[in-house]
Amino acid sequence: MSTIKLFLCCMMLVALAMGQEQGYSFTSKEVKCHVCKATVQELEDAIAKEDPKKMVDVSGFRLDASGNSITKRVRFIKSEMFLTELMEKICDKMEDYLKATYKNNGKFTLLKMIIDGKMNPDSSLVDFVQDGDLNKSLGHFCLEVLEDNEETFLKAFQAEELGNDLDIKICSEQAKYCDDAPVQDEYNFEGKEEL
After folding, report:
1. How many CA atoms does the CB half-sphere of 118 hold within 13 Å?
2. Which residues share a beta bridge with 128?
3. Can you tell me the distance from the alpha carbon of 48 to that of 42, in angstroms, rounded to the nearest whole number?
C-alpha cells in the first residue's frame, strides 16, 4: 500500500473518532453547496486538460431542402456529448474529498486530499469529519446536484466564456444551494456630483 493511501486510511480513522467525539453537525444544504462547488471545479479542471481548439461535427435531426442532415462544427469542449459524458463520470472524483471543519471557526468544508500528487497543505487547518459511510454520500450528493441541475450545468459550460465565478453562478444563483454572491465591482465616485 502506498504511503499516501496508508496516510489517508489513518486520517479517515482519526476523523471518524474525532467526528463522533465532537459531534459535528451540518445541513444537507451545506454539504450540497460544497459538493456543487467541488463539482464545478472538477469539471473546469477536466475541461482544461482538453484541446480548446479541437472541433467536432454536431448533427441534429433537421434536414436541409435536399434531405441531408444539417451539421455544424462546434468546439469539442462545448459539445453537449462531451459535457454529458464528463458529467456522468465526474462524481467519481468525490472519492478524493473528505468532509471537514476549519479548526479556527468550525465552518464546514470539503477538502480534496491530494493536489498535484501531494497531500493538501490545508489538511492541517481542518478537523476531518466522518459520517460512517466513508464519505460515499458525497458521490450521491454530486449525482443529485447534477441530475437536478443538468441544464444549468450544460448551459453554463457551453457559454463562450466561463467567467471567474462559475461556481457562484451555478451553485448560488441558479441551483440555490449556496448563499454566496459574486464580488461586486467597486463603484467609482470620482467625477460624480454629490447629492
Report:
1. 4
2. 100
3. 10
Rg (CA), the chain: 21
For the segment 88-134, what is each residue's pLDDT rounded down to a tens digit? 999 999 999 999 999 999 999 999 999 999 999 999 999 998 777 76
With cut-offs at 50, 70 and 90, classify the pLDDT of residue 47.
Answer: very high
The dihedral over CA atoms of 125, 146, 60, 157, expressed in degrees to the nearest 10, equals: -30
Check whether 194 has a pLDDT greater than 80: no
| Between 11 and 84, residue with greater pLDDT | 84
The SS3 of residue 130 is coil
pTM for the full predicted model: 0.77
pLDDT at 73: 87
Query: Residue 23: CA atoms inside 13 Å, Cβ hemisphere, count?
Result: 0
The distance in angstroms from the start CA to the end CA of the chain is 70
Burial group, residue 61, by CB count within 10 angstroms (0-12, 13-18, 19+): exposed
Residue 126 has phi, psi (to 5 degrees) of -125, 160
Which DSSP category does 134 fall into?
T
| N residues, the chain | 195
SS3 state of residue 62: strand
Q: How far is CA 17 from CA 22, 130, 132, in A?
A: 9, 8, 10
- Spatial separation of the C-alpha atoms in residues 134 and 33, rounded to whole Å: 19
